[in-house]
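Here is an idea for our session: we take a single protein and study its fold together. To get us started, please write out a protein record for me. Start from the sequence, derive the backbone structure tokens from it, and show both lines together. Go ahead whenever you are ready, and we will take it from there:
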Amino acid sequence: MSLNRRDFLGGTAALTAASLLPHAAAAAGKIKLGAIHDTSGIFDAYGKPMDQAVRLAVQEINAAGGLLGQQIDISAYDTQSDMALYSQYGQQLTRQDKVDVVHGGILSASREAIRQTMRKTKTLYFYNVLYEGGVCDRNIFINGVTPAQQVEALIPYAMGKSGKKVYILAADYNYGQITARWIQKFVADNGGETVGVDFFPLDVADFGSTIAKIQSVGPDLVVAPLVGGAHLSFFRQWAAAGMKDKIPLASTTLGVGNEQKVLTPEEGNGIMVAYNYSQQLTSPANETFKANWRAAYGSSDNIHETAVSTYQGVKTWAKAVEMAGSLDREAVIAALETGISIDGPGGKVTVDPKTHHAVLDVHLMEFDNQQMRVIETLPQRQPIDTQAVCDLQANPNDNTQYEIQI
């Protein structure tokens, strides 16, 4: 997913210049955690808070005495939203810095650019982002929601508030294409009909003809797995055409990077989403997390879904290290595969031993005055899409990204 909003985080605490540059791992004897994110370039609205989340989690762990009696040092690299730098820095983290674990990647392309390097060098890897599902690799743990966890919850809720005829607008790449198929499945499962599906390259920003087409078809609901700064234009143009109050909108991506704060309330109010996190959650874990974030960075305005998923990923890894009593990769994987859980800002996070994906609470939400208002929480949703194709307990040597047949 992408979003180019250089001024979006201007009012929030800035990362220090040092945090945006590669730096060597810690002195001998310390635990080494690698982080690789887009903290500059067109994906920085996602990457900066993800980098901050890693640093906050490590700061908290170190302040509590570290892991196994040792402090954690971070080796962080800014890929500048350049996929080629993921390969370069992924190799540097594993071969030169010799880190014990890597947390990183935003787009699926960035994950795949470094996943095999992590596997070959036997470096444990956490990918902490919402994605299309299907990765089956014993060396990776994935903490973002998959389509079945999210879409299966969102579609019946949105159809219940609108009607049975659904039109889909999706980004024209792997995530959008696969998610569109899941939407069609759950529309049909709930007695609905998909009356149109359109795909758009990431640089498309003019949706005038598409809006006219939707008006002519007359659906009850539009579901939009659109991605990035250009696609954000659809929501503005939809509201400007006077359609927002005529045909409801739902999305599987809008708000993951706090896009609801870029839209005006008039453009965004009422759009329906389903994610693992909202700043409006009132749990003790979330209140403590937000307070610690403000103490570290001066403001909590830029916290979003992928930042929280990253924070939860680091805390899950740390719990597994403590359980294993070792940094040995096989011992840590074995601890994770016991199905350990943490209490995170988004709710309980549980490792699914079969797929190495997370079992997560999913919150049905609506945009309300640039916030994500929680309507209902659906606890501990399983990654059933990836469970249909991946069983690492039966096939521990699997190394595939499956295209799940729907």
About this structure: The mean pLDDT is 91. The longest strand covers residues 358-368. The chain is about 35% helix and 20% strand. The CA atoms of residues 260 and 370 lie 5 Å apart.
